[in-house]
Predict the structure.
Amino acid sequence: MDEPLLEIKDLSVSLKKRNTISVAVDCLSLNLYPSEILGLVGESGAGKSMTGSAILGLIESPLYISAGTITLHGQSIVEAPEHIRGSKISMIFQDPLVSLNPLKTIGEQLVKTIKTHFNISKAEALERGKRLLSDVGIDPERIDAYPHTFSGGMRQRVVIALALAPDPDLIIADEPTTALDVSVQAQILNLLKRLCIERGTSIILITHDMGVISETTDRVAVLYSGRLVEIGETSDVLQHPKHPYTAGLVASTPNIDPHSFHKKLFQIPGTMPDINDVPNGCAFHPRCEHASNICQTQKPPLFNARASCWLLETPGETL
Amino acid sequence: MIFIILNRFFQAVLVLLFVALISFLIFRFVGNPVESLMGQEATLAQRAALEEALGLNNPIYIQYFDFLWKAVRFDFGNSYRGALPVAELIASRLPATLELALTSAVFAVIFGVFMGIYTAINRGSVITNFILSSSLIGVSLPTFLIGVLLIWLFSVELNWLPSFGRGEVVDLGWWTTGFLSESGLKSLVLPAITLGLYQMTLIMRLTRSEMLEVLRQDYIRLARALGLTSKAVYFFHALPNILIPVITIGGLQLGSVIAFAIITETVFQWPGVGLLFINAVYFVDIPVMSAYLLLVGFAFVLINLIVDLSYFFIDPRLRDSELKDKA
């Protein structure tokens, strides 16, 4: 494979409250390659969004990056993340209804973003803004309209246009379709995917929706309690999960299949631990049917660059 | 747009009519005007003649319309003291009050907004904590005490600024201004600070809390993620979104600054309408009191009207929804 675009190594994000320090993201390492779409999946509070914000340096006190490195094109970006925001990496948030400034026209917001990154005249910036709007499927004539005159799906298109405006190498999309109607979700995902493939832009897609993962991403990283539990090619991970948690996630995904209508949906027993109270050893062991003694005492490393589970220690053993 | 303006204008006129009613009732029923004008020695016939001349025998609504009609032409009758027309008295005092109120409002808004933004952006810094704790003084000390303290420090001890009066004023024919002479400007400093300090702290705290609220919004996070400079994030994205509450409170405060300049004017012997009013109260000079009430009511209504209309220029959502309602 090529050189990675983005390299996250042993990243930890901690939360300092009075005298206690809790770990929200624990020793996370992953690589992202050019033009790749990587999914980050996990339950709420697993550290997905935190990882996305940490890459852009957008986490605020009392949260802080306590260890690890993040490099883009081989250069560290932890010290001065403001230099890469927009121009190299931009981000899309969950709720398009509140992602746009209600008092500025979409044209003003586009022009402001474009002029921040390119030294061009206002007329040129406006021209570029119109082209971006037509790229995301919005009539360029509406450039002087205010955000409230657009529907949720349309606004998310405007947000995508804004994210693409500085021509970044990577877009972090934090649950970009969660707040949208189901019928619009697929449109927005396909649009984002198509535009990024055309431009050679990578995507980190943060979601809890396994359906979105399977349809959109090339590779997927599964997070649990701030730790990476499994990573690999999407089709491989979804069809042959190596970690019991991933297997549970896949099994608990609703499936519109006439034969499974009457089957009860699988549930992973228990809940994810609070970050102040993460169990010793493997964080998943209290909920895991395969848990053995070693799971309760020692953190599993990532075996075969694939999954952090002691089951993989013995070759040949599978779920 | 014209509908909205007309609608608001109509509401303003209604409020003014009501204020005029109260003002009229004070005029008519607080004390007896005949008594005040003629004194003890007048004969019954003289009294009856004056009552007739003043129109006091007409039905009450006729008297009210009469009062309104005169008020529209700035005819508030004569002051009981000195027998000068009230309109003339007020006109001669109004520039002093308006200049003082305007100066202190500008001082309050500029310092209030900038300190509010500064303390919101630099949360927890030493300067922020200093500003916030000293602003408590501005909120809790009464105006007259602040005035007296300032006089003691800057006039008595340091001898930098005059302690009373308006200094030299330049007469422009229809307006007398203290802005054009050095002593006029110097005289303005202490009263303007005294009058504006409370409003400044109020505007600062409001700006700060609104700013903190706005900075948590997703469009601010998006703007940051898109690499916009801090300047653009604060002034392009955040500032317009705090304008509506700040203008609302700021406008109301300007009204109170005009209305409650009384105390400051008394402390600094500032020759404005507030001082005129206080003296009128001492001598139960009803026409002056009633005209002052109308004036303050008018100022409040006018400012509110302007504040209301400014919303439509700031917020496109309001503009659209009002237009839809009317259509």
Notes: Strands of chain B lie at 170-171, 176-177. Chain B has a mean pLDDT of 83.
